[in-house]
Amino acid sequence: MRTAPLHTTAAALGLTALLVLHVGAAGTAGAASMTARVLVVSDQARRYLTLAYGSLSTEFMGCMIGQVHGPVVFVQRIAPADVDPAQSTRTHVVPRETCEEAGWKGTVGMIHSHPGGDRCFYYFPGTQVPSSDAESFARQPYPVDAIMCGDSIVWISRDKTQRQVRLAAGPIPMAADQRPGNRVHTGSLLAARGE
Fold this sequence. Notes:
Cytidine Deaminase, domain 2; alpha+beta; 4 helices
């Protein structure tokens, strides 16, 4: 029996339970209408995103399939969005139809990549001016939207607060929630690493 994955899963579930308790209101009346404050991404979804990001030189798009429990969004897997290859370049991607029209049930949000880790933000730095990604999210019915940027996911919820989840193993740096006008990092993710 493989105990390391079991310990990792148990630790993740325990941490998630603590986050739900800390954030509060999970299980209370109206919890489903709350703004998402935590994004939990399964190991399967992480592997898919890492593989897709590393193998494509153009943007990819996926449907985040999962569940919403109060302020916590659980992403169990990523289903590929229906994208015409001609509509995927290094700077944009456009799906042919919605996730539901493509047959995916349980969609909690969309995710797309930014090859090279550039422009991983929803509001232009130092402003409240929405990027095209923020504009796209505003037209979607989902509680969250995400951008895959290297080893991280930058995501936003309906409160317009940008947050970050690291996909790589190791300690996760705790970043404060970023309201419009700010980013998780100054400059691109690559610039933040000094690359």
